[in-house]
Amino acid sequence: MPKTYEQINEKIRSGKAVVYTAEEVIDLVRSNGAEKAAEEVDVVTTGTFGAMCSSGAFVNFGHSSPPIRMTDIRLNDVPVDGGLAAVDTYIGATALTTNSKGGYGGAHVIEDLIAGKKIHLHAWGPGTDCYVRKDIDTYITLDDINDAYLYNPRNCYQNYSIATNTSDRTIYTYMGKLLPRMKNATYSSAGQLSPLLNDPHLETIGMGTRIFLGGGEGYVAWPGTQFKTNVEEVNGVPVAGARTLALIGDMKQMDAKYVRGLDITGYGISMAVGIGIPIPILNKEIMERCAISDDQIFADMVDYSQPVDRPPMARYSYAQLRTGKVEYNGKHIRTSSMSSYSGARDVANRLKDWIEHGEFMLNKPADVPFPKERKLNKLEERRC
Amino acid sequence: MMTEKKFKINFTESNVQDSVAYILVSEFDLRPNILKAEISGDGSGVMILSLVGDEEKLVKAEERLEEAGFDIKELEKRIHRDECLCWNCGACTSICPTGCISMDPKTFLINFDDSKCIACGACLNSCAVHALGLHI
Ligand code: SF4
Ligand code: SF4
């Protein structure tokens, strides 16, 4: 018997909802079958906790007296956007400090704000008749500022290629440190726990879906940038990056444990974000898809020493990757993850806990379909 | 009995590396391997040395170097991970050449076996949250 959002929410409200994480549900479906499991289970919680460069935060500082229209703004020496209204800004996660020591950026400012630390605000403006002031130098905290919310244009990549390096020198990439002559390979997906691998065609996830974002409640805002669908699928899920999500959530609810600034050597700054998405088990088909396991999810390995055109070299399952080594042409390659599996599990468990305790209701997405088919355009270089 | 020990030597002149190695090889038949050497502008610095050889001779060699005026100490712990900072991503696990760092297949938390650490430092810049440090 199919269920509805209303029925599931009613069970959550009365503390009777049956919730499994995407990891726990695998065995249940294997032993009882999807049909029975779909009747028993109301919600499956997913989780992911990895580097998501396309992230950031909108902030409103409040007006000083006399007021200033800030056009050049630094937070702990990190340049943030000066192209919004007088005291609004957007902190881009990858913005790098102007301090020559480096190693700190927008993501760290966001983490420090959430951690309740004082942040140095230094800003300048042109001085106008309505905003006479030309500079301000002060300290802010998350509590003082009016608004602070994450708006991450691209999170939750559905899958991601495995990175290796065939060249003779160590290379430093956003996929981490890659040793020469394929001594190692790195991957980045929560696999069987990952939100978009459990609902691969976004049957239940859409604009307005309520989620766990950085330790607080957030929402799916829009399809993520670079959302695409034309990727080969195996076992019903893509073998490389495909769909993505744009997410939004109030920073004042968040926990710095789930929002971490990253300083990736040789690449730059990024932000690790803990995200959990609940999947309502409305029918048997949705249940079947949630039972996918690491041995059924594959990714292609590509050579990051090639600046362009990286053809797939080999394909491995996440179960193989998580053993710490894979074989390629008779040779062992050490593998490591760039995202935290224990973190993803923690997120899925936290979200499960909230739902079991009636603290988190499901929000049915708005009737705004995300693209069923979409390809990406390339950036053309034109003369005029 | 053949064993391996690691030592840290503080020195004041940079030519010390050659003389230390010479003493160890010629007088004690030990196999030295310089794991790390840092020399500052004035020629002083610190060196991490692995020595393989007869256990008794290792003890004697340490005494001999002390007598020769070197500040030598056996190294017990080398790699250090700040557990509050580490988010158990696992990025460092494929970097370590000696397999000190591994991912627990059940908990997916990082395991450190620092007895295998040769203080090469390769893992340090693989950690994006600066949780790893080498104490010398
Ligand atoms: S310093 Fe070298 S040997 Fe020690 S843990 Fe790091 S990579 Fe391994
Ligand atoms: S790279 Fe750093 S954060 Fe990641 S597991 Fe190793 S020590 Fe922990």
Structural summary, described in words:
- The complex is a heterodimer of chains A (384) and B (136).
- Chain A has 384 residues and is α+β, with helices and mostly antiparallel strands.
- Chain A has 2 domains: 254 residues, no CATH class; 84 residues, no CATH class.
- Chain A contains 8 helices and 26 strands.
- In chain A, strands 3, 4, 7, 10, 15, 16, 19, 20 and 21 form a 9-stranded antiparallel beta sheet that branches. In chain A, strands 24-23-11-14-26-25 form a 6-stranded mixed beta sheet.
- In chain A, α3 packs across α6.
- Chain A is globular.
- Chain B is an alpha+beta fold and 136 residues long.
- Chain B has 2 domains: 73 residues, Alpha-Beta Plaits; 56 residues, Alpha-Beta Plaits.
- Chain B is 19% helix and 33% strand.
- Chain B is built from 2 helices and 8 strands, in the order βαββαβββββ.
- Chain B has a 4-stranded antiparallel beta sheet. A two-stranded antiparallel ribbon of chain B has the order 5-8.
- In chain B, α1 crosses α2.
- Chain B is elongated, with a radius of gyration of 17 Å.
- The relative contact order of chain B is 0.20.
- The model of chain B has no long low-confidence stretch (mean pLDDT 85).
- One iron/sulfur cluster binds next to loops of chain B.
